[in-house]
Automatic annotation (TrEMBL):
Pfam families, per database record: NUDIX
EC number: 3.6.1.55
Keyword terms, alphabetized: DNA damage, DNA repair, DNA replication, Hydrolase, Magnesium, Metal-binding, Mutator protein
Protein name in the entry: 8-oxo-dGTP diphosphatase
Catalytic reaction(s) noted: 8-oxo-GTP + H2O = 8-oxo-GMP + diphosphate + H(+); 8-oxo-dGTP + H2O = 8-oxo-dGMP + diphosphate + H(+)
Listed PANTHER family: 8-OXO-DGTP DIPHOSPHATASE, NUDIX HYDROLASE FAMILY PROTEIN
Family annotation (SUPFAM superfamilies): Nudix (SSF55811)
Family: Belongs to the Nudix hydrolase family.
Length: 126
């Protein structure tokens, strides 16, 4: 089975957490914490800064690591490193690759259909 290593940002603003809805691929329409694949030679933090710039046109400050999720999807094994992030001053996310996005309070985290690996992250947040 193919293995993929990715990073995901739990972007917080006050008590809210940013969630995105995938707009493509096998997991289309599922909700996730934004991020993406690491490139050779990148640290997880560097990959997260790059991916969030590419996907949402934002600059972030990467904070504390939350967890690393290991999950077997039908076609691949996922290793996902998750970090808290905060938006740089004046940044507002623009949806360049996602179908939708919303800010959720911790109490409302389970109101979207999270992708299976992201469900594990939600458990850590709650």
């Amino acid at each position: 089975m193919k293995s993929i290593e990715v990073v995901a940002g739990v972007i917080t603003d006050g008590g809210r957490i940013f969630a995105t809805q995938r707009g493509y691929g096998d997991q289309k329409d599922g909700w996730e914490f934004p991020g993406g694949k690491m490139e050779p030679g990148e640290t997880p933090e560097q990959a997260l800064v790059r991916e969030l710039q590419e996907e949402l046109a934002i600059e972030v400050n990467v904070g504390e690591k939350i967890c690393t999720v290991e999950y077997d999807y039908p076609k691949f094994h996922l290793t996902m490193h998750c970090f808290y992030c905060s938006l740089a001053a004046g940044c507002k996310p623009k949806l360049l690759e996602h179908e939708d996005a919303k800010w959720l309070d911790r109490e409302n985290l389970n109101t979207v259909n999270w992708l299976p690996a992201d469900v594990e992250v939600v458990k850590h947040l709650l």
